[in-house]
Amino acid sequence: MIEINNVSKWYGSFQVLTDCTTKVAKGDVMVVCGPSGSGKSTLIKTVNGLEPFQKGEITVDKVSVGDPKTDLPKLRSHIGMVFQNFELFPHLTIRQNLTLAQVKVLGRSEEEASTKGLKYLDRVGLLAHKDKFPGQLSGGQQQRVAIARALSMDPIAMLFDEPTSALDPEMINEVLDVMVGLAQEGMTMMVVTHEMGFAKKVANRVVFMDKGYIVEDCTKDEFFGSPRSDRARDFLAKIIH
Length: 241
What we know:
There is one protein chain. The protein is built from 9 helices and 10 strands. It is α/β, with parallel strands linked by helices. The chain has 2 domains: 1-78 and 157-241, P-loop containing nucleotide triphosphate hydrolases (Rossmann fold), CATH 3.40.50; 86-155. The chain has a 6-stranded mixed sheet with strand order 6-7-8-3-9-10, sandwiched between helices. Helix 3 (94-106) crosses helix 4, helix 3 (94-106) packs parallel to helix 5 (139-151) and helix 4 crosses helix 5. It is a peripheral membrane protein.
């Protein structure tokens, strides 16, 4: 579903990604972890072209992300993206947040978009809040709305960029529970997160990054059982402790 081959990226003279190669099969849940500044968020944003890259190739469902001829808005409409800070429109109701992209990008009627949006709002347990504004919801609720909005576009894969890092500790589980449900339903997912409990529970594969390199790319059991690199062992010792 997602193939990343020898991808490198620079900000000016600073190299933020170096020869990154990995792949996510259909139905896989890949967790990308590592210390702050390791390139995790940059890597996931290159997958749908939010961050350009200067070297290598990325394909999503056999479409090349870096090809100048690729229709990036169309490609992005098939890849759900959930950000750290929700990115909901504060002046629109929850229902309007769920329907806007469906109408503008996918060309659905207001009625069809509303039906689809409310179905997923119910899926994340927030149907009763459909006529509220984002500012009236907690952070955890807003993030669940953001997930429902992404799912309303019928994505072939979902990208999560540290979806719980802006939340209070007691709100984290309500978001992770929705993500666990998606994983169990077979959604292809690439998740940047520090939530190792989530990784242990649902990840098929774990990618560990450090200083712009992919240091480990292995199964969940290999990563938690016997990481090959000293850097990953050190990271795990600190984060699990």
